[in-house]
């Protein structure tokens, strides 16, 4: 009788909570005994439940000030992940938008990477610099570092056996930057949100971080012209600038609880998403309440919103396009039950099932995963399972 494979999970860093950490939580639910390797772990900032997890950090955990400000240590991450000792594991699952996928698997092990995106600051350096408002001197200093990171990242990705992308947009990026095919498995979304009942209240909603690339400025300008109520939930460095743009019908709510967010999803006329996101978890959460969304027709929204059925698209990031989309939402009747049913196709249980199915396909292809034995040829041949 063959023994079960020994599994290890690798994650970039554990010092902030977001969509990548939702994926990690589901991977942990699938393999609760698997150790989780991360460059750093800030136990005070992460959910309390993580303290019971078998988390193992690298030498970076001991670097001064890294838990408060990890970006200056950018050149050190490749060293930390290259030194991870993963001997004895048959299956390695990495959750990565930067460094974790570039580990060195032991001979005979199978490495599956769930890629949230190729590292944006390296492969989309110009866009990242604009997004983060980096000045010319900073860009020039970073240029040779980012060039070296791209070369290192390409070599590391070549060692991955199977790549999974969180959206078709990211799969296209993987193909462009790495020349690799990737299966698409959408990330897990919390869909157990109370169903909307009755007619919505007379306001529109935005739930997001208040940062420039989210393009809240165009929505605020549109609602200033419309004179309609708009509520904005979220925090971020752009709040003061956005408040200066806002007219009397725009209200800033700041950070809110999940319970309050769910209540607002169910009460609003629609939630508005003016930015291009790789996937857009909040777009699905809003639909889980049974209310339509208004979304920019780009990125992950094209995979999560059904135009005219679960929401309304607009095609230009302008106030005029927002105004036209609001008019279309007002002229369209939406069925809350249909919207909720669509959102449930992105539920966490669906994610776990698709990951399990993917690993089952891998197990049929690799004697490593199915029996823990060394595969012929080790890691010399890299291939990607297609997820139909």
CATH architecture of the largest domain: 3-Layer(aba) Sandwich
Could you spell the SSE succession in H and E letters?
A: EHEEHEEHHHEHEEHEHEHEHEHEHHHH
**Measured distance between first and last alpha carbons:** 31 Å
User: How would you write the strand order of the largest sheet?
Assistant: 3-2-1-4-5-6-7
* DSSP strand content: 5-15%
What does the average pLDDT come to?
89
Determine the structural class based on helices, strands and strand pairing. Answer: alpha/beta
Helix content: 25-40%
CATH superfamily of the largest domain: Glycogen Phosphorylase B
Q: Based on Cα principal axes, name the global outline.
A: globular
Largest sheet: 7 strands, parallel
In the residues, how many domains can be counted? 2
CATH topology (fold) name of the largest domain:
Rossmann fold
What is the number of helices?
15
CATH class of the largest domain: Alpha Beta
**Low-confidence parts lasting 5 or more residues at pLDDT below 50?**
368-388
Detailed description of the structure:
The protein has 15 helices and 13 strands. The protein has helices spanning 19-30, 77-82, 120-123, 125-132, 136-158, 168-178, 216-226, 239-245, 258-267, 281-288, 301-304, 319-331, 336-343, 348-365, 367-371; strands spanning 7-11, 36-38, 55-57, 91-96, 110-115, 162-165, 183-184, 204-207, 230-233, 250-254, 271-273, 293-296, 311-314. Strands 3-2-1-4-5-6-7 form a 7-stranded parallel sheet. A 3-stranded parallel sheet has the order 8-9-10, with helices on both faces. It has a 3-stranded parallel sheet with strand order 11-12-13, sandwiched between helices. It has 2 domains: 7-188 and 347-371, Glycogen Phosphorylase B (Rossmann fold, 3-Layer(aba) Sandwich); 204-345, 3-Layer(aba) Sandwich (Rossmann fold). Residues 368-388 have low confidence and may be disordered. Helices cover 38% and strands 14% of the residues. The chain has 388 residues and is of the alpha/beta class. α7 (216-226) packs across α12.
